[in-house]
Amino acid sequence: MLPSTFRLFVFSKHTHFPRRAVKYRCYCSASAEDTDETRVRRFKTKLSSGPDFHDFIRDTSDKKSPDPQTEYEQPYLPHISSGNVRKVHFETYGCQMNVNDTEIAWSILQKGGYLRTSELSEADVVLLVTCSVREKAEQTIWNRLKQLTVLKKKRLKANAQLKIGILGCMAERLKTELLEKEKLVDVVAGPDAYRDLPRLLSLAHGGQRASNVLLSLEETYADVMPVHNSGHSAFVSIMRGCDNMCSFCVVPFTRGRERSRPVSSILEEVRLLSDQGVKEVTLLGQNVNSYRDISEEQISSSEVGSRLSRGFSTVYRAKKGGMRFAELLDRVSLVDPDMRIRFTSPHPKDFPDEVLQLIQERKNICKQIHLPAQSGSSRVLQTMRRGYTREAYLELVENIRKIIPGVSLSSDFIAGFCGETEEDHQQTMSLLREVGYNIGFLFAYSMRKKTHAYHRLQDDVPAEVKKRRLEELISVFREEAAKVNSTLIGSTQLVLVEGESKRSSQELCGRNDGNLKVIFPRKDLPPQITDTSTLPIKAGDYVLVKITSANSQSLRGQAVSHTSLSDSIKTEKLLGERAASC
């Protein structure tokens, strides 16, 4: 039975409605003769006369003074005047995924009426796209926030506003500290909340602090075309999140569970990049080779377990059906034969022979594989929950080099993980020597909240021991990388030119198929090996470079000819014939 007097409350967990919109009183007179049907009908009549959705949005079409009886103190969705266009400045930290996130966020804000500026002094909004993988990365952001806060206070004295926002992994992990404890930022948006940025910034410009760090089981931004700003190369996200739950890694908790972007969306973006003249695309994800588009055709169950049967395991149940990474890589490589294709970062458990054979057969898929080891000790690998032993990892390396001769390998290593002994450390150094990587990324371990290690393990390796072990790993890596890279002296490498060398405007630099930096003197070259005329070398050109020296970090050589990816083998053959006849 309905009460004679009741209140209808409308509320939102994200923001506060104006008072008149929040509370609308309805008074219904009741008598003994009233039936339930009469009271329900009267209630619906009264309810229909209350505010509807349009009352919560400011109407800018009528410039006349509003009726004081219907004017609310603030609209639910603040209006952005077209005459007050705001400029946003991005600063990106961390991995390639954050570069791609910046491009996604900018695409959304651009459609929301914002302009982008590279000059901090011109910005109305500064957005930091952040990383939480290591403590050092977070400390860099905290230091930067303090600098920006000083600038913000100076702007206020000049009657100008500067809004500061934190996006990405650090936003999800440290929302409370950022908004409430330190009070350094106005907007916090997690990796799955970029669509909400226009609303969050509108609230910030209205004087509120705003946040959205909810993680999604479905968000891939498949319908958001990133605004790429990298010229000849670009990153294309194929999936988000991770299910591996390695004990040291915070990514599953800051980026959520693993979900794959539809292949149709990926191919559309790659075709657009090809039309724009992009020469190299890197497919991105936390675990790219476990990609699976379940909207596409099914696969046999035998393929699902092919990698796990050779000494690899996983803490989560393998998904079944859908298009796998090998088929996606195949389709992407067919978009443009003159576009290089790379991918990162994979997990060693997801390397079926189909992927390796495709890399070997397809000319524009780079013969370079990132193979994160993290440790050379089977005991530490088990504690890390990596799902493989040292022996299984070495078997995979052998199989890769058998199928792809001359492949360039890179890896990640962590020094001083929980419980690591000197013997474990020595085994990691011996793995570095046994494999011989071209490129390495080595770091001292830092405990991250929310991870399995944080809850179950002890960070018991002293900081000075971590530092010493890291230095020893770096020393061994450089020694072995110098040996591996020196085998390329005398070879001719196809190089995609990136621009001037950092040390000299008279030198250019680029990267070869194995992703090694190649430095060479600037000079004009013939457009084809048989031509007598010459053209200057510019960023985005493919050139053949004869390697004359090498160290652990880069190669040096002399550029000998312009070429294209599809013509490089023919051009190199002509160069070899010319050298033999001299």
Kindly list the characteristics that best describe this protein.
Transcription Regulator spoIIAA; Rossmann fold; 582 residues; 5 domains; five-stranded mixed beta barrel; six-stranded parallel β-sheet; alpha/beta
Characterise the protein shown here.
The chain is of the alpha/beta class. It folds into 5 domains: 1-77, no CATH class; 87-212, Methylthiotransferase, N-terminal domain (Rossmann fold); 222-366, Transcription Regulator spoIIAA (2-Layer Sandwich), CATH 3.30.750; 367-485, Transcription Regulator spoIIAA; 492-581, Nucleic acid-binding proteins (OB fold (Dihydrolipoamide Acetyltransferase, E2P)), CATH 2.40.50.140. 33% of the residues lie in helices and 20% in strands. The protein is built from 18 helices and 23 strands. The strands form 7 sheets. It has a 6-stranded parallel β-sheet with strand order 4-3-5-6-7-8, sandwiched between helices. A 5-stranded mixed β-barrel has the order 19-20-21-23-22. Helix 7 (197-205) links the parallel strand 7 and strand 8 (210-212). It is globular, with a radius of gyration of 29 Å. It starts with a strand and ends with a helix.
